[in-house]
Amino acid sequence: MPDILHRVGIKSAPKKVFEALSTIDGLSHWWIVDTKGNAKQGGIIHFGFADMRVVELKPNKLVKWKCVRGPKEWVGTDLTFQLKAKKDQTFVLFTHANWKKPVEFMYHCSTKWAIFLLSLKDWLEREEGRPSPYDVKIHVGD
Amino acid sequence: MPDILHRVGIKSAPKKVFEALSTIDGLSHWWIVDTKGNAKQGGIIHFGFADMRVVELKPNKLVKWKCVRGPKEWVGTDLTFQLKAKKDQTFVLFTHANWKKPVEFMYHCSTKWAIFLLSLKDWLEREEGRPSPYDVKIHVGD
User: What is the reported pTM?
Assistant: First the structure.
């Protein structure tokens, strides 16, 4: 079964990237404006359309979530952001894994994750994130 | 083993989308400026860094390539663009399949394919494609 994989390199310190991935304020600047909840390990983050349990946090290295509510194809899937510092940038290796089937919605989400990781990059490099509902649209009606 | 999956919806007729995917001129407007070769079924298209054999063409429906030269991780992989007309848009379902291992380069290529499919969309909707070397960069040194 395919997983969704992505990588971006961000001209920012691992600490800043980790903050954007592991705090409610950070997440609201690049993924979903209306983010609420508890972003600490074991907490539940509410993204409106979905809830994520924070499974693991390694400061400046790793963020792991499990989807516990949301679109039926997402429930039970695992999301990982791994950070790798390299010279003047921090690479973010992203996976959205354990989908049950490669349904068409998965194709859509893969492209959408690229959009949001570029929003994360733009937020950290230029304070120009485009969190939902201000995200780049990828089809009519998106 | 993961495949790379993406989907975009383009406000354009299947015939126009198919042309952009199955002619040298079309491909040069959204993927690689310096595209050469023979884009007919059985032909080889030269993209500079890689060569693709055109395995299958179904007018306005499907384009399939096999990578026959290029980065070692790409050689032998299969690329598919499936078109689905729906009301006022054409969906492109893209796969880049049969990678041997989910190496970090695959994560990079997945994000990069999203960038290029959005370039295809922008080319067809607004004549604003960003083919390489004018593509959106996703890390320092990309």
Answer: 0.97
